[in-house]
Specification:
heterodimer, A: 433 residues, alpha/beta, 10-stranded mixed sheet, 9 helices, 20% helix, B: 255 residues, Rossmann fold, disordered C terminus, binds adenosine-5'-diphosphate, binds magnesium ion, ATP binding (chain B), AAA+_ATPase (chain B), ABC_transporter-like_ATP-bd (chain B), ATP hydrolysis activity (chain B), nucleotide-binding (chain B)
């Protein structure tokens, strides 16, 4: 079968890339779409997609964009985080919703607006990010995103500006008459010495059988500090492919907390390049596929400068017939001497039909590197379960207690207490009982 | 209170308990002694409902109900408590939170009102004093990083808070130095009452100098082979378990 006969690819190619009137951008869109059309969706022979089969997805057709997104009725409760006021940008089915967003009273040093507006005003600063051609065989969704995304978020923090309120980016998926596809592109930059807390929420309502792709570039200039939370609780029917590409300059620090809870099929690529001396990246994450969910996290960290540090703690909990995939690849490149790279991924299978594939990879080409790397897959400890029950705690409650304890390490060091509580209770609701 | 009759139990297809009988009345302290591998822990595990122990014959009646038909949590709510020979470490679960959850789960199962965290903390403070446990242990994860002695004391502390009717102490003395042994014994003695019964499982007579039993039984090869008063413990200490083999017929204790 030729690629264009595959329903997913055919329905995607049927829509020409939108014209922006900006030469370099239209060219990049055309070329990325052409590259996608040529290669189509990767199959499991492509290493990066080894454990995530796209066969079922490839047989589905999607309508591009939601014409009614601007008027859909949304209950703001769906993404409310009481006690956390601050600027926010809200997208519904991939479309910016000014009425749900709050861009009033932006703190000094913070520039925040939808990508469409930024492009209309001055596209040039976005050229580096948006003119990119994705060429890897595993990059199909990034190609598609580069070709089709007309909106997203542009966020810049000026040098030395310390933004003391969290900025929220909210992506809402709601049911539509047809299966629709949306694509968003975020470009985020923290200037030298800047500080920011960013909260990214994916929420869904109803049986939103849609495909969303989100590609974010996050650049931290020298000495910048970012706290980044990704709380993915998309609709149970959604397919979500999101990618964060971080770049950390000298002494820059990023602390990421990721909850992957929702969606039917979710793929998260988290790539970080530590390009400046002394950069530090901490990632904490938990993925909880239940029922028939499939959640694939691909963490790739590249140490490329002296004395860089990365520390990653990830937990996976799978129940029912669900499938979790975790790849934790760390590269310490030649010259990144004195670096410290740690990764720990523990997984818990709560049912005999659940599966988690974890693949730690560590490559070291530098000197005086400290590295520790470990991954396990196991079940609830029968001895601990009996211990709890022998004290009077009913079986179901004992299981919940142990499962929650298993995930605890992931949220422990989140500095903002309000945010920590919100995430903990969201996690508690989504953990299998 | 507790009546065990002709109990046979298997682990992984291997028969461990081979016709054990024992009767415990309210307020009594029974010591169970025996060589390693005799089946002492198996008895405690069967009584508290651990998976993997298959009862093939016999019965256990507890306050008139068939104890073996109850889930472990229901046995706990009914007042059965096992102090583990090897207490389990549970990373990520705070000791105080764990104990309050257990305490309230038992109350709920019995139709009693639950305590809120302030009320519970008050109770814990009172019990901590009696047990001489530092409240620093209460802020840690259950048994995680506890020394051997701290684990054993934590078991007795849990017992003090949960106030069971039948407490089974499985080698609570093993691994304790003499000071810790005294403290643990004081904690146990403080809980002795006309309504509360104890099964004190031990390998050594030493513990019984501090927790003075009403009865001593010798468990060997899955059966009670000898029963007597506390002087039996001293005889065992003197002559060793080998002495039993030459010493007459296995006795069906208090059948
Ligand atoms: N979970 C188990 N799996 C296999 N064998 C067991 C298990 N528990 C106990 N046993 C066996 O049962 C016998 C009695 O053990 P146990 O009750 O622990 O003795 P004691 O506590 O008197 O030292 C031993 O031979 C032991 O190996
Ligand atoms: Mg034992």
């Amino acid at each position: 079968m030729s690629e264009s006969a595959v329903p997913f690819v055919a329905s995607t190619l049927a829509v020409p890339p939108p014209s922006s009137g900006i030469g370099w951008l239209d060219e990049a869109r055309r070329e990325n779409l052409a590259a996608f059309g040529e290669a189509g969706l990767p199959d499991t022979r492509v290493e990066a997609w080894k454990y995530t089969a796209l066969r079922a997805l490839s047989q589905r057709s999607f309508i591009h964009g939601d014409a009614q997104a601007a008027t859909r009725d949304i209950d703001p409760e769906a993404f409310a985080l009481p006690g956390l006021d601050g600027p926010r940008l809200v997208f519904v089915n991939g479309v910016f919703r000014g009425d749900l967003s709050d861009l009033s009273a932006l703190p000094a040093g913070l520039a925040l607006r939808p990508l469409s507006q930024a492009l209309a005003q001055d596209a040039e600063p976005l050229r580096f990010a948006l003119a990119r051609r994705y060429k890897e065989r595993g990059d199909a969704f990034a190609q598609l995103n580069a070709a089709q995304a007309v909106d997203g978020v542009v966020l810049r923090v000026a040098a030395d500006a310390k933004i003391d309120v969290p900025v929220r980016l909210v992506f809402v998926g709601v049911a539509a008459d047809a299966e629709l596809a949306w694509h968003l592109r975020n470009v985020i930059e923290l200037g030298e010495g800047a500080e920011l807390t960013l909260v990214e929420q994916h929420v869904g309502s109803g049986n939103a059988r849609q495909l969303g792709t989100l590609v974010a570039d996050v650049v931290l200039r020298d000495g910048a500090r970012l706290q980044h939370i990704v709380a993915q609780d998309a609709s149970a029917d959604a397919t979500l492919v999101h990618r964060h590409a971080l770049q950390l300059g000298a002494r820059a620090q990023a602390l990421l907390h990721v909850l992957e809870l929702g969606g039917a099929l979710v793929r998260h690529d988290l790539q970080a390049d530590l390009v400046g001396n002394g950069a530090r990246l901490d990632t904490r994450g938990v993925f909880v596929p239940r029922g028939r969910q499939h959640i694939d996290t691909q963490l790739a960290i590249r140490h490329q400068a002296l004395n860089t540090t990365s520390d990653s703690t990830w937990r996976g909990v799978a129940d029912g017939r669900a499938r979790g995939v975790f790849r934790g690849a760390i590269l310490v490149a030649p010259g990144a001497d004195g670096s410290d790279a740690r990764l720990n991924n523990k997984n818990l299978l709560l049912s005999g039909s659940a599966e988690i594939d974890t693949k730690p990879e560590l490559e070291i080409y530098a000197d005086e590197v400290q590295a520790a790397h470990g991954a396990t897959v196991g079940q609830l400890d029968e001895r601990a379960l009996f211990y709890l029950r022998s004290r009077g705690i009913p079986l179901a409650e004992a299981r919940t207690l142990l499962t929650a304890a298993f995930c605890r390490a992931v949220l422990d060091d989140l500095p903002n207490a309000t945010l920590r509580e919100h995430l903990a209770s969201l996690l508690a609701i989504r953990l299998p009982v | 209170m507790l009546k065990i009759e002709n109990l046979h139990a298997r682990v992984e297809g291997k028969e461990i308990l081979k016709g054990l009988s024992l009767t415990v009345n309210p307020g009594e302290v029974h010591a169970i002694m025996g060589p390693n591998g005799a089946g002492k822990s198996t008895l405690g595990n069967v009584l508290s409902g651990r998976d993997g122990y298959e009862v093939t014959a016999g019965s256990v009646t507890y306050n008139g109900v068939d104890l073996l038909a109850l889930e472990p949590e229901a046995r706990a709510a009914a007042g059965v408590f096992l102090a583990f020979q090897y207490p389990v470490e549970i990373p990520g679960v705070n000791n105080t939170y764990f104990l309050r959850t257990a305490f309230n789960a038992q109350r709920k199962a019995r139709g009693e009102t639950e305590l809120d965290s302030m009320q519970f903390l008050k109770l814990v403070r009172e019990k901590l004093k009696v047990m001489q446990i530092s409240d620093e242990l209460m802020h840690r994860a259950v048994n995680e990083g506890f020394s051997g002695g701290e684990k054993k004391r934590n078991e007795i502390f849990q017992m003090a808070v949960l106030e069971p009717k039948l407490a089974i102490l499985d080698e609570t003395d093993s691994g304790l130095d003499i000071d810790a042994l005294k403290q643990v014994s004081e904690g146990v003695n403080a809980l002795r009452s006309p309504e509360r019964s104890f099964l004190v499982v031990t390998h050594y007579q030493r513990l019984l100098d501090y927790i003075v039993p009403d009865f001593v039984h010798v468990l060997a090869d899955g059966r009670i082979v000898e029963s007597g008063d506390k002087t039996l413990a001293h005889k065992l200490e003197e002559h060793g378990y080998a002495w039993l083999a030459q010493h007459g017929e296995p006795a069906g204790a208090q059948a």
